[in-house]
Specification:
By secondary structure, the chain is mostly helical. Helix content is 59%, strand content 0%. It contains ten helices and no strands. Helix 5 packs across helix 7 and helix 6 crosses helix 8. The relative contact order is 0.14.
């Protein structure tokens, strides 16, 4: 106990609350991220999402140059969530971080507000990536990947195994998109460098 305390590390739920904070050199975008995830609570939105791939039970997306029958439908859905997508993009551009509102004094019963919903945001970015892939928008497709990684990084420092597993899942999804980008898009050397940097 003395050694842990000497390192300035927490031992109790209250100490964890104080310990888990955003880095001082990165903007705290917790409120913006949580607000961007709210639309997923809409029942009408979930009904539409349920018909689409990745975020619902839609058919598997074919790879270009094969035609994707739900391409226009996916674009229309994403257009309705443009404010959320712009917030996610801002997290990437500004290198934003988050201190998700978890009260660790509750122990194992602590509610991980926003953590599990974050994967919905990254699924949305995956859908946007596939739209960009079919429209041959290389820059937008790459930005979707980098933004997905940036959202995963907002879980850095979260002292919870469930949150760490969510983060691994988000990164796994980003790696799958990188594989698709390498196969189907004309990547420049600087694009490869930016992807390597994101995953570092």
């Amino acid at each position: 106990v003395a050694k842990v305390q000497a390192c300035g590390e927490p031992l109790t739920g209250g100490e964890l609350n104080a310990y888990y904070q955003t880095p001082k050199d990165r903007p705290d975008m917790t409120a913006e991220i949580l607000a961007a995830l709210v639309p997923w609570e809409s029942e009408n939105l979930r009904k539409v999402a349920g018909k689409l791939p990745i975020i619902g039970r839609g058919d598997e997306i074919p790879f270009p140059p094969q035609k994707w029958p739900q391409l226009e439908e996916a674009e229309e859905f994403l257009a309705g969530l443009d404010p959320s997508l712009k917030t996610f993009d801002a997290v990437y551009r500004r290198r934003g971080m988050a201190r998700y509102p978890v009260d660790f004094r509750e122990g194992m019963a602590a509610e991980l507000t926003g953590v599990q919903s974050l994967r919905n945001g990254t699924r949305l970015l995956s859908l946007q990536f596939h739209v960009a892939l079919h429209r041959r928008r290389t820059r937008q497709a790459l930005d979707c990947i980098l933004t997905q990684v940036a959202l995963g990084q907002t879980l850095n420092g979260m002292p919870d195994v469930t949150a760490q597993l969510e983060q691994f899942t988000i990164y796994d999804g980003a790696i799958e998109l990188i594989d698709l980008a390498a196969k189907h898009l004309p990547l420049a050397d600087e694009d490869v460098v930016s992807l390597r940097g994101a995953l570092a």
